[in-house]
Amino acid sequence: MPDDGLSEGCVTRAELAELAELFDRFEFALDPLSRDAEEAEARFNSRVQFIFEEHIRPRRPQLSFVIFRARVRNLCRVFLKKNPP
């Protein structure tokens, strides 16, 4: 992976577990247009935005939200692979 300046500790394990559960509900939904999938995606995006604004941006102002969100999505995939639902 390219060095995006984002350490593995960008989110806590508890945050990652929460985000991975939401990610699983929309990314792998049988019906991605279902209300549950849409609500899970909205909650995921809102939570990622909050974490970025509160914890990441103050310490790493040069890091874009797009890069952070992509990294979190990747961390969720890895988490789900290691911890199947």
Overall structural domain count: 1
User: What is the average per-residue confidence, as pLDDT, rounded to a whole number?
Assistant: 90
| Contiguous uncertain segments of 5+ residues | 1-6
Rough outline: globular
| Strand and helix order | HHH
Beta-strand content bin = under 5%
What is the tally of beta strands?
0
**How much helix is in the residues?**
55-70%
Summarize the structure.
Helices cover 65% and strands 0% of the residues. The chain is built from 3 helices and no strands.
Characterise the protein shown here.
This protein has about 80 residues and is mainly alpha-helical. It has one domain. It has 3 helices and no strands. Helix 1 packs across helix 3. The N terminus is likely disordered.
Main traits of this protein?
single chain, 85 residues, mainly alpha, 0% strand, globular, disordered N terminus
Question: Mind sketching the topology for me?
Answer:
Layout: H1 13-27, H2 35-56, H3 65-82
Helix pairs in contact: 1-2, 1-3, 2-3
